[in-house]
Amino acid sequence: MTATIGQGTSRTEGPTQHLHYELRLPQPVEKVWVAVATPGGLEGWLAAADVLEPRLGGAVTLRWLNNEDDAVHPGRVTAWDPERVAEYTIDLHGRCRFHLEPAGATATTVRFTNEFEGDDALRLDCLAGWHNHFEFLVDALAGRPKDWSTWSLDRWRELREAYAAEQ
């Protein structure tokens, strides 16, 4: 099985944006869980988890590693069901939910949702950003975690243009 990142979709309800992705990954749930629900896993594709209390209501602080100013974002663990659901609500991206489902013995489907308040431009920014990070996730799960010193906006810009063209 080859990893696939489904095209992100979105809908707007008032000021709230709802983003959805479906990823099919050729790793078992246990390995994907480590990537989305542990500090060591998150750092390889998303952000450093300076704080992550792995329980409902636990504190979480994510620090983006791509040289952005004000890149530290606190929040709470708003859902936690080990090897099934990890959900973080943080000040930067609102509610971010990873729902893992086994796809046979050696693969995983991730249903990701993100809800936040923002305008259409922010919606497009986030569609591109999450897609880009999911590409990093695929690489990290294949043993190639993101080398943040090589990060640039080039791929994000390409993805944002593609999402904008679909609208």
Structural notes for this entry:
- By secondary structure, the chain is α+β, with helices and mostly antiparallel strands.
- The protein has one domain: Alpha-D-Glucose-1,6-Bisphosphate, Chain A, domain 4 (2-Layer Sandwich), CATH 3.30.530.
- It contains four helices and nine strands.
- Strands 1, 2, 3, 4, 5, 6, 7, 8 and 9 form a nine-stranded antiparallel sheet that branches.
- Helix 3 packs across helix 4 (154-166).
- The longest helix has 22 residues, at 120-141.
- The radius of gyration is 15 Å and the shape is globular.
- The model has no long low-confidence stretch (mean pLDDT 95).
**In the residues, how many domains can be counted?**
1
Instruction: Provide the helix percentage.
Output: 25-40%
CATH-derived topology:
Alpha-D-Glucose-1,6-Bisphosphate, Chain A, domain 4
The number of helical segments is 4
Arithmetic mean of pLDDT:
95
- Give the CATH class: Alpha Beta
CA distance, first residue to last residue: 30 Å
Radius of gyration: 15 Å
What is the 3D form? globular
Quaternary organization: single chain
Low-pLDDT stretches are none
